[in-house]
Write a structure and sequence with these properties.
heterotrimer; A: 363 residues; alpha+beta; Rossmann fold; OB fold (Dihydrolipoamide Acetyltransferase, E2P); six-stranded mixed β-sheet; five-stranded mixed β-sheet; 21 strands; 25% helix; elongated; B: 259 residues; mainly alpha; MetI-like fold; 12 helices; 80% helix; globular
């Protein structure tokens, strides 16, 4: 499947990273099926998917740590497929960070420059600058084991960034951090990315993280790139059932389309062009309106009745679970706090949404 | 992506190293079954004659008995003594445990000859008569560090919360020890015992100097080597080899089946 | 198991007793004895340095020879052990466990039997010679395979290799693959990675391995006796002959103490040198 961009043609510059026909097989197992991918300069690009989908393999192929079974990798116009990581204009922040425990923060960061025989004065200057960028001034002379997880992560980041790579690769950079720290580090990463204007490619299984950081996301499943685009596009218009449930919460209601009309198992019907087949309707919890079972309350095209199973106050919104008449369950997110006090579990309620808020996908 | 050349070199090296380590032992076993009296190729055929000759040797039977007695005694003593010490050391903090373990392993750093002669001098200065009973403590001194290290490593990994749950459910410390700790570390203890016995069986230098006139399997080999080219030496050596390697394999198997 | 210090001490008591009575005690007596002297088969307990002086006059060469052989064996064994441990840790993948198993097996597979095995292999009627003859590469058996320093080095290296592999492997376990990948990513070739990243982190393992190899080689007398022939008497042989043949125990113990002191000194120097050489700049 091609995930090359179909943007405005002549205006956009050629992609910084071009993957063409990239595939990777381990014995009989296809970790990555043949795919094309474009990453443009300045992108903060996310490879998103569940464990085993091939995203880390793809990252390692870009970085040169894994040789593809087929296909080519082009970075900045140069075919780097046969080149090792030390020869590519990329640098990676590894899972587990890979910091050298016998060196201080400063020595870790300076290591790549030392290898490249950069002169002492320049090393000192550049290390000082990058330590400022990642805000590690106080800790510069400590060893990694005296640092917290977040601090170690910043050292790993600085060590890679100081090499001025054309593409910075990050392998699940925030996986080991707790929630608060993760949010703080997301902010940091965005700030750094904007500040230096580089191209970042990162791997994550956390869709919230992908949406928070990336300007383009490639969703992967079982070695295939199933959808590629900006976060809003993927969220609003997921192409498959898998994507809709993987990205954000979604209600999935089965039904059947016949003769240009869809009949949901739960009851409602609406017009929809397409072949006669089994389908599912996907609608986001926040796009559904919830109200008492009174005819005048809700105005959407789709209206279903059921009973309120429970409601949970989650802070920014209330999560309602409604059991429909046919037994199916619908989740509604509502910021209407007043409603929570009015509704009683077990009470008959209505849920409703417009045709614009739902997606009809093949089952 | 390591180059194919580097890959090939590593494979070659690995094969060479393993061959180097194993071939003397394999050849020894091979020749104990060979028909020609000299250990060389081509072998004319397989036979167990040498083993028969060995078992007919009266010295061999005496040595076998002594070796068995000594190794079982040494195994038992070092396991008991070593386990007790390991339990205690495992309760200490890392800082204190380190030096104690280092001290315990000091006897291993000495050349066994020095140890043997020191013991011999001490024994004769005290006027003690030499025999299996003077051999056992000498061997235990340098075998107990192995037991301590192995059991300590296991205890350091031991999940203390299991004991907490046992206590929570009403077990006394002693009961918890016998019903929870012991069964879990039993494979390690058995492994350590087997290693201790293997080491004792093969031990030559300390035994030679502190046993007075007695015989064990290794000292028997030594005696046979000094005397003549008797091909049943191969058989004897193979027997010792199989005993020690066999015990070690069992020990490794036992200690691998941990939780 | 309570943390009560009295109970802990009690548990350590049996091991400690054995340690004191059968190791520290005899060894202390040994050292004390090295300052006594024997003349005309009579032991005199007066404090004297004569044994050590005699070492300086008579045994310096043999001490030097032993030291040199032990050094060679130590270096060869440690190098091979490092390569093998590196192979197991980073290059062998799943085979690594099997290789480790083989190492452990050979480690406990005997001492005397191995020396005997090498004597058989290297002898004029041994398998190496008959194999070479059979292949037509030589006409007569090579006598120089056995009964010389080379045989001693080979035999002891073979015996000590597994002992050296284990501590080095232990140190290597602490180095994550991510570190090696990061070094590569930053531009370091294999040699650079080895010197900058791997070696500094396994200093302890290497020192322990070298110590084991060096100490045991320095004090060994069975190997030179069986495969070394008459030309390769090491200090161990002399210690033994002083004790058993010359019945001059003080001289023997002085020799033993001397070799221990030299070995300890070597280790300390080695540690300092390594630390200095591998410290990150």
């Amino acid at each position: 499947m091609s995930a090359a961009r179909e943007d405005s043609p002549s205006a956009s510059p050629p992609p910084l990273v071009r993957l063409r026909g990239i595939a990777k097989n381990y014995g009989n197992v296809a970790a990555v099926r043949p795919l094309d991918l474009d990453i443009h300069s300045g992108d903060f690009y996310a490879l998103l998917g569940p464990s085993g989908c091939g995203k880390t393999t793809l990252l390692r192929i870009i970085g040169g740590f894994t040789e593809p079974s087929a296909g080519t990798v082009e970075i900045d116009g140069l075919d780097v497929t046969r080149l090792g990581p030390e020869q590519r204009p990329t640098n990676m922040v590894f899972q587990g960070y890979g910091l050298f425990p016998h060196m201080t923060v400063r020595q870790n960061i300076a290591y790549g420059l030392r290898i490249g025989h950069v002169d002492r004065a320049e090393i000192r200057e550049r290390v000082g600058a990058i330590i400022g960028l990642v805000r590690l001034e106080q800790l510069a002379d400590r060893r990694p084991d005296a640092l917290s997880g977040g601090q170690q992560q910043r050292v790993a980041l600085a060590r890679a960034l100081i090499m001025r790579p054309r593409v910075l690769l990050l392998d699940e950079p925030l996986a080991a951090l707790d929630l608060q720290l993760r949010k703080a580090m997301q902010e940091e990463l965005r700030r750094i990315h904007q500040s230096i204007g580089g191209t970042f490619v990162f791997v994550t299984h956390d869709q919230g993280e992908a949406m928070a950081l990336a300007n383009r996301i490639a969703v992967m499943d079982a070695g295939v790139c199933v959808q590629e685009g900006g976060p809003e596009d993927i969220y609003a218009a997921p192409k498959t059932r898998f994507i809709s449930t993987f990205i954000g919460d979604a209600n999935v209601l089965p039904g059947r389309r016949q003769g240009g009309r869809v009949a949901l198992d739960a009851g409602a019907t609406f017009p929809d062009a397409g072949a006669d087949e089994a389908i599912v309707v996907v609608v986001r919890p926040e796009a559904i309106a919830l109200g008492r079972d009174r005819p005048s309350d809700l105005a959407g095209a789709i209206r279903l009745t059921g009973r309120l199973a429970d409601s949970v106050f989650l802070g920014p919104y209330v999560k309602y679970r409604v059991t429909l008449e046919n037994g199916a369950e619908v989740v509604v997110h509502s910021q209407d706090v007043r409603l929570r006090h009015e509704l009683v579990p077990g009470e008959r309620v209505q849920v409703s949404w417009g045709l614009a808020q739902q997606r009809v996908l093949v089952s | 992506m390591t180059s194919r050349f580097a890959q090939a070199v590593w494979v070659l090296f690995g094969v060479a190293a393993v061959t180097f380590m194993l071939s003397p032992l394999i050849l020894l076993v091979l020749f104990s079954f060979g028909q020609n009296s000299l250990a060389s190729f081509p072998m004319r055929g397989l036979t167990v004659d040498w083993y028969g000759r060995l078992f007919a040797n009266a010295d061999f039977r005496v040595a076998l008995k002594n070796s068995a007695v000594i190794s079982v005694s040494v195994g038992a003593v070092s396991v008991i003594v070593g386990n007790l010490a390991a339990f205690a050391i495992a309760r200490l903090r890392r800082r204190h445990a380190g030096p104690l373990l280092a001290a315990a392993t000091l006897p291993l750093m000495m050349p066994p000859l020095v140890l043997a002669l020191a013991l011999l001098s001490a024994y004769s200065a005290l006027g003690l008569s030499l025999g299996p009973s003077t051999v056992v403590p000498g061997q235990v001194v340098f075998i107990q560090p192995f037991v301590i290290l192995v059991v300590y490593a296991r205890m350091a990994d031991f999940d203390e919360t299991l004991l907490d749950s046992a206590r929570d459910l009403g077990a006394s410390p002693l009961q918890a020890f016998f019903t929870v700790t012991l069964p879990i570390i039993r494979p390690t203890v058995i492994g350590a015992a087997l290693i201790a016995m293997a080491l004792s069986l093969d031990e030559f230098i300390i035994t030679y100097y502190t046993i007075g006139g007695g015989l064990t399997l290794p000292t028997l080999i030594w005696g046979m080597l000094r005397r003549s080219v008797d091909p049943s030496i191969n058989a004897l050596a193979t027997l010792i080899l199989c005993a020690t390697v066999g015990a070690t394999m069992l020990a490794i198997r036992a200690t691998r089946y941990r939780s | 198991m309570p943390r009560n210090p009295v109970i802990l001490a009690l548990f350590c008591l049996p091991a400690a007793l054995i340690f004191l009575l059968f190791f520290v005690g005899p060894f202390a007596y040994f050292v004390v004895m090295s300052f006594w002297s024997v003349s005309l088969f009579k032991l005199s307990r007066n404090f004297t340095f004569i044994n050590y002086i005699d070492i300086y006059t008579d045994y310096l060469y043999s001490l030097g020879y032993t030291f040199a052989i032990a050094l060679i064996i130590g270096v060869i064994t440690t190098t091979l052990a490092f390569a093998f441990a590196y192979l197991i840790r980073f290059r062998a993948g799943r085979l690594g466990t099997l290789l480790l198993f083989v190492t452990l097996l050979t480690m406990f597979g005997g001492y005397l039997v191995k020396i005997y095995a090498w004597r058989t292999i290297l002898g004029t009627t041994g398998i190496l010679n008959t194999g070479l003859e059979g292949l037509g590469l030589i006409d007569e058996p090579l006598p120089w395979l056995l009964y010389n320093s080379g045989a001693v080095v080979t035999t002891l290296t073979h015996f000590l290799l597994p002992f050296a592999v284990l501590p080095i492997y232990g140190s290597l376990r602490g180095i994550s693959e991510a570190q090696l990948a990061a070094a590569r990513d930053l531009g370091a070739r294999s040699t650079r990675t080895l010197v900058d990243i791997v070696l500094p982190q396994c200093q302890t393992g290497i020192i322990v391995a070298f110590m084991l190899a060096f100490f045991i080689a320095a004090g060994d007398y069975v190997t030179p006796r069986l495969v070394g022939g008459t030309a390769t008497a090491m200090v161990g042989n002399f210690v033994e002959s002083q004790f058993i043949t010359a019945l001059d125990a003080p001289q023997g113990s002085a020799l033993a103490v001397a070799i221990l002191a030299v070995s300890a000194g070597t280790i300390l120097i080695l540690r300092a040198v390594m630390h200095r050489a591998l410290a990150p700049r």
